[in-house]
Amino acid sequence: MAEEDNNTQQAGAADEKPKLTFSLQRIYVKDISFEAPNSPGVFKQPFKPKVNLDLNTTSTQTADDQYEVVIKVTAQVNDSETGTTSFLVEVEQAGLFRIGGIEGEQLEQTLGAFCPNLLFPYARECVDSLVNRGGFPPLMLAPVNFDAMYAQRKQREAQAAESAE
């Protein structure tokens, strides 16, 4: 009889563990910009691009179990010989995620690496579409390893904390 009560209590304790939930609620463009400041003159010369790419991710908790993750992609393409700007494109691709039962370091990694991996193909397509609509050859962004970016960021934070001490 005592064993049955123990088993019942253990089963109840197992039920008390938070249920892991993860779902993508919505994908959307939060901000978008395309500039070709030197057109139409830029089209009169051979296109010899030099690409400067900046990539950043942020996350914000919007409700108890809801998070907004944003990837900001900025690509500035200059002529490699003259340095004049051919175009500048900025895209903030965002997603709303419902995440429950994940906390601490695991939640940080989910928001800093896993979610951006899901959003990046959308940002990539948006950048490519804007560049094509601007009259330029496609700008096919290479895949990004957000897991490695997250690990590097955590390493830099640890080094900064060490040096602060």
* Strands ordered across the widest β-sheet: 1-4-3-2
The CATH homologous superfamily is named SecB-like
Shape: elongated
Taken as a percent bin, the fraction of beta residues is 35-45%
CATH topology: Bacterial Protein-export protein SecB
Largest sheet: 4 strands, antiparallel
**What's the total helix number?**
3
Q: How many domains in all?
A: 1
By secondary-structure content and strand pairing, the structural class works out as alpha+beta
CATH architecture: Roll
Q: pLDDT average, as an integer?
A: 89
Percent in helix: 25-40%
Radius of gyration: 23 Å
Quaternary state reads single chain
Brief overview:
One of its GO terms (molecular function) is unfolded protein binding. With 165 residues, the chain is α+β, with helices and mostly antiparallel strands.
Polypeptide structure, described:
The protein has a 4-stranded antiparallel β-sheet with strand order 1-4-3-2. Helix 2 (104-133) crosses helix 3 (146-164). By secondary structure, the chain is of the alpha+beta class. The chain has helices spanning 2-16, 104-133, 146-164, and strands spanning 21-35, 49-63, 66-79, 85-100. It holds the Pfam family SecB. It comes from Vreelandella subglaciescola. Homotetramer, a dimer of dimers. One homotetramer interacts with 1 SecA dimer.
